[in-house]
Specification:
heterodimer, A: alpha+beta, Ubiquitin-like (UB roll), Alpha-Beta Plaits, 4 domains, two-stranded antiparallel ribbon, 8 helices, B: alpha/beta, Glutaredoxin, Rossmann fold, 20 strands, binds flavin mononucleotide
Chain lengths: 230, 610
């Protein structure tokens, strides 16, 4: 069993565990977006960054892909990590401000500004749907097409796919298209509602599965509502 | 065995006209020249022969020939020159006015020409002596001698030799080759692969193409040696499909190698089995990245994978795989032949041997240059390259491909090695070197490369995909005169994060053009932002053309050439540009004989550099 040290905690990690798995097991919080336990690790969203190494020889790696190897020293929330994550999130939220998942993360991570022009796109290319379709539904009906600024997730040749069984798993797993956040004022890109209302926010109390309204917290105003009802 | 291989020594008193005919030569008409020479030597084939070779490296002098054994060099030839050259050569004379000329001096011999003189052509040197589709030519130069030698060595000894030579990968990152080989050798399992990376996706770079086209056996030999040393059973040559001549010559070479018993089962009776397959890339820059390249060979989408695991542990089809650049493989052949000490004797403490650069851009002598590591940029740009094109000043170079960095001329005393280039904000990259003169706008340059990268990013990781798009967006804003000073801080913050957070080398180097120009040419950025001025006169939104009242002769040339009919004026009278029609193409500026058209920039209308 490889011995790792993560935020000062020593731990004998089971073989083939990733740093993320170790961290979660120990109850350390690392934000993720393109990660899902049932799917292969992808390393695309870069939110699960951690800092590894010691002294001045440290670097940032994605914890979902990095193996917990013997002697590894990990910091999950150093200043360098937090700053980098914020920039990553700033890029994501500018791309797709209507994602509640992203808005919640922004509120939680204390992202205060978005300096890029909002694109109002409907996809952040995290690839969850592609992996879901291939690895769990065994359909391989969708995939990435093109690259760079022309990247899309699509069926082959943009035609209705015979492989697709309309199972909807792609939509189910999408962090953007199913749970929309319309926020207080979407023009400002950052909704900030959860954070601006009373602490703790709904995100800390409720997750998508146990929202008191049964609405999966779409409104983003759980904390406030809760107080008024009581 | 060795004697069998070197049976074909050339008979040296025969005159051979070697015609440079790589892709570049052919584009400049070398095939017509070949026909003309064939006609000219008719009936005298016993005394004089021609050899159609790959590239000789001197682009500016294409099409050119070298005549052996005296190594006389004729440049920029036309088909009609062939007969003249043949007649003179047979008489032992030289055609003076076809010799290469530089600074009013004519040069007779190939090796006296400044472009070639300061080079050390250990890899490219044989190109003029080799017809790439004829293995005998390669054998005559001592080809496959290294393989014979290697097969008699312990595999571990070969790796030791490569380690001792100090060879580092020529594909960009400069990882020590011997070390990589050792890791692969130590992996368990019967099946291991080696790959030659000939993707070469950098625009303006053609080092690898030239080696593959002109001397394919040099690379194949290196691969066989490496396979033997690492215990690999199968090799892959990955070449982009846009290199048809390289693909063709390699396929011919592979067949010849098999026929000679140098590939296949029981190579040269050593009981070592190995063969090489070829995969053609579809021309995506990112497919040069090793994990994306492997995916591409596996018929998957060319998207990089997060390492670890490294290809050496889990590469092609999940097996241990060693991947090296074309030039690295070629170096291997030379190292085994001449020894690690010879190689380690060239270069600096950390960077050994030679490196090939494609020297292009606003430079007099463009072409492929092979130089010892540690040579200064000054020597490459001025001694070999001859400096900027007429009358201009060199301002900077951009080194290392699209994701390389710009180095200003003040730093041209920098030695060319991996560490120095990196510390200056550039990278060795695969060796593209683009020279820029005073008419180049550095903000525009950064924007140009960032644009390339934003469309070549595979899109898998956020920082590279969104980061390059945002950098481009902001840079574009600045060149259009809509930049703010805060943009520079944002660019710097963003660039740093993209560099340290991105998944593969593409994103990790993508901010280089931006960050290096910001580091050395911040004044140009500020001029664009604060004064709405493009000092080099490149960014169209910030320049205007006017005609000077004093100097205009009313010749009408500008009016005649203007594609927009934006110039008014009667003959012999002052002409005027109508600004709302003008698209700033600059044709009037270029055609005016009396220098009356001015390019101005900025709020208060300053003249741009001519
Ligand atoms: C975006 C990108 C493009 C690359 N393109 C090439 C290429 O065209 N040729 C090449 O040999 N290496 C290229 N590389 C480097 C390869 O990933 C790899 O490091 C190299 O082939 C290893 O060989 P070497 O050790 O001999 O340099 C590229 C890397 C990146 C990140």
């Amino acid at each position: 069993m490889p011995k790792v040290k993560i935020d000062g905690l020593e731990f004998d990690a089971p073989e083939k565990w990733s740093v993320l798995e170790v961290a979660r097991f120990l109850g350390l919080e690392i934000p993720t977006l393109c990660y899902n336990e049932g799917l292969s690790a992808w390393g695309g969203c870069r939110l699960c960054l951690v800092e590894i190494g010691t002294g001045d020889r440290t670097k940032l790696v994605t914890s979902c892909t990095y193996p917990a190897e013997e002697g590894l020293v990990v910091k999950t929330s150093s200043k360098r990590v937090v700053n980098a994550r914020k920039m990553v999130l700033e890029l994501l939220i500018a791309q797709c401000p209507t994602s509640r998942t992203l808005q919640d993360l922004a509120a939680k991570m204390g992202l205060k500004q978005v300096r890029f022009k909002p694109k109002w796109e409907k996809c952040i290319y995290c690839g969850l749907c592609v992996r879901m379709c291939e690895e769990q539904m065994m359909a391989k009906a969708i995939g990435f097409t093109n690259r760079g600024n022309k990247l899309k997730i699509n069926t082959p040749f943009n035609k209705t796919s015979d492989e697709c069984r309309r199972c909807g798993a792609c939509m189910y797993i999408c962090p953007v298209c199913t749970v929309r956040c319309e926020g207080a004022n979407p023009k400002d890109v950052l909704c900030g509602r959860c954070e601006n209302s009373l602490q703790p926010t709904c995100i800390d109390i409720n997750d998508s599965y146990n929202c008191w309204m049964g609405l999966k917290g779409e409104c983003g105003t759980c904390a406030k509502e809760k107080l008024t009802v009581k | 065995m060795q004697t069998k291989l070197v049976k074909n020594r050339k008979d040296s008193d025969k005159i051979v006209i070697s015609i440079s005919s790589g892709t570049c030569g052919q584009a400049r008409g070398s095939l017509n020249l070949v026909e003309a020479f064939k006609k000219a030597i008719k009936g005298r084939e016993n005394k004089i022969s021609i050899k159609v070779t790959g590239c000789h490296g001197f682009c500016n002098a294409e099409p050119n020939v070298v005549i052996f054994p005296n190594e006389v060099f004729y440049s920029n030839l036309k088909p009609e020159d062939a007969a003249k050259i043949v007649e003179a050569t047979l008489k032992g004379e030289i055609v003076n006015d076809l010799l290469y000329q530089e600074n009013n001096k004519r040069f007779t011999h190939f090796n006296d020409i400044p472009f070639y003189k300061a080079q050390l052509r250990t890899l490219l040197g044989d190109n003029p002596l080799i017809d790439p589709v004829n293995i005998d030519d390669y054998l005559a130069q001592g080809g496959y001698k290294s393989l014979v030698k290697a097969l008699k060595m312990e595999p571990g000894k070969i790796i030791e030799e490569i380690k001792r030579s100090g060879l580092r990968g020529r594909g960009g990152a400069g990882f020590p080759t011997g070390l990589k080989w050792e890791i692969v050798r130590k992996q368990k399992g019967d099946i291991k692969y080696i790959i030659c990376n000939g993707d070469e996706g950098d625009p303006g770079a053609y080092m690898d193409r030239s080696i593959l086209e002109s001397n394919p056996h040099l690379v194949i030999e290196g691969m066989i040696i490496g396979a033997y040393a690492m215990g690999a059973t199968e090799g892959w040559l990955y070449v982009r499909n846009e290199y048809p001549l390289a693909v063709k010559n390699l396929l011919v070479a592979l067949n010849q190698t098999r026929k000679q018993g140098l590939l296949g089962n029981n190579i040269l009776n050593s009981r070592f089995n190995f063969d090489i397959k070829m995969a053609k890339g579809a021309g995506a820059f990112v497919c040069g990245e090793e994990t994306a390249l492997i995916a591409s060979i596996e018929d998957k989408r060319g998207m990089p994978k997060q390492r670890p695991p490294f290809p050496a542990q889990q590469g092609l089809f999940g097996k241990p795989t060693n991947i090296n650049n074309v030039e690295t493989w070629a170096d291997v052949t030379r190292i085994i032949d001449k020894g690690a000490d010879w190689f380690a004797g060239i270069g600096t403490k950390t960077s050994k041997g030679t490196k090939i650069f494609s020297l292009v851009g606003k430079i007099k002598n463009s072409g492929l240059v092979e130089v010892p590591m540690g040579i200064t940029l000054d020597k490459i740009v001025f001694d070999i390259g001859g400096g900027a094109q007429s009358g201009k000043e060199v301002k900077a170079i951009q080194n290392g491909g699209p994701s390389g960095g710009c180095i200003p001329k003040e730093l041209f005393n920098l030695p060319v090695d991996y560490e120095s280039l990196t510390s200056a904000g550039a990278i060795m990259g695969s060796g593209g070197m683009i020279v820029m003169d005073e008419n180049t706008c550095m903000v525009d340059t950064a924007k140009y490369f960032t644009n390339f990268l934003q469309s070549e990013s595979c899109g898998k990781c956020v920082t590279c995909r969104e980061g390059t798009q945002r950098m481009y967006e902001i840079l574009n804003n600045i060149t259009e005169g809509n930049g703010q000073e805060e943009d520079l801080t944002l660019l710097e913050d963003l660039g740093k994060v993209v560099k340290e957070v991105s998944l593969c080398g593409l994103g990790q180097t993508a901010p280089n053009p931006l960050l290096s120009t910001l580091r050395y040419f911040k004044d140009e950025y500020l001029a664009h932002i604060k004064e709405k001025k493009c000092p080099a006169g490149v960014c169209k939104a910030l320049i205007r053309y006017t005609i000077s009242v004093e100097t205009c002769t009313g010749c009408g040339l500008c009016k005649k050439n203007c594609p927009q009919d934006a110039i008014e004026g009667e003959k012999k009278k002052l002409h005027v540009i109508e600004e709302d029609k003008c698209i700033k193409c600059g044709i009037c500026f270029d055609v005016c004989k009396s220098n009356a058209v001015n390019k101005i920039t900025g709020k208060e209308g300053v003249l741009c550099l001519k």
